[in-house]
Amino acid sequence: MKKKNPVVKGTSVDEQTRCRHYHSPVDVVAIKFYCCDDYYACYYCHQEKVEHSPEKWPREEWSTPAILCGHCKTELSINIYMGVNQCPNCEHPFNTNCSYHHHLYFETDKSIGD
After folding, report:
1. How far apart are CA 85 and CA 113, in angstroms?
2. Given this model, what pLDDT does residue 3 score?
3. Closest residue by Cα to residue 82 from 91, 101, 47
4. Longest distance between any two alpha carbons in the chain, whole Å
5. Full-model pTM
6. Rounded CA gap, 9 and 17, in Å?
7. SS3 breakdown of the chain: % helix, strand, coil, rounded to 5?
8. Between β-strands 39-40 and 8-9, what pairing exists: parallel, antiparallel or unpaired?
9. Phi, psi for 21 (deg, rounded to 5)
């Protein structure tokens, strides 16, 4: 039986997980939010669609598949995602500027004290 692709929530999400906030050719990453275990296209989509505050992925859970390549639908662990600039499965490039937002999703040195 074929595995069902995860549903990606958000505002105006296309088939490759781009949303109204981030929609360049390399904006093809969706993130499963730790707080609700649902994929969202971005932080702003999560804020618009739910009534709770986001929770960051603890470092000890970075081996969890929580990143979705919108191009090939491969799920990646946070550890793998943090070390690549493209999907290891299909080689589609990821937006390197997303690293500026890691502190919104994952416990990082930058997020301590947020």
Report:
1. 27
2. 66
3. 101
4. 45
5. 0.90
6. 9
7. 25, 20, 60
8. parallel
9. -85, -40
**How far apart are the C-alpha atoms of 15 and 111, rounded to whole Å?**
31
Give yes or no for a contact between 42 and 19, defined as CB atoms under 8 angstroms apart.
yes
Could you read off the pLDDT of 59-80 as tens digits, one per residue? 999 999 999 999 999 999 999 9
- Indicate if the pLDDT at residue 113 is higher than 80: no
Structure tokens at 54: 């986001």
Q: What is the pLDDT of residues 5-54, one digit of tens each?
A: 899 999 999 999 999 999 999 999 999 999 999 999 999 999 999 999 99
Tokens representing 21 are: 């906030």
Strands 65-69 and 29-32: antiparallel
Q: Rounded distance, CA 2 to CA 83, Å?
A: 28
Query: Which tokens sit at 27?
Result: 């904006």
Using alpha carbons, select from 2, 16, 11 the residue that is nearest to residue 72.
Answer: 16
What angle is formed at CA 6 by the lines to CA 29 and CA 42, rounded to 5 degrees? 35
Nearest-angstrom CA–CA distance, 44 and 57: 17
Amino acid making up residue 88: P
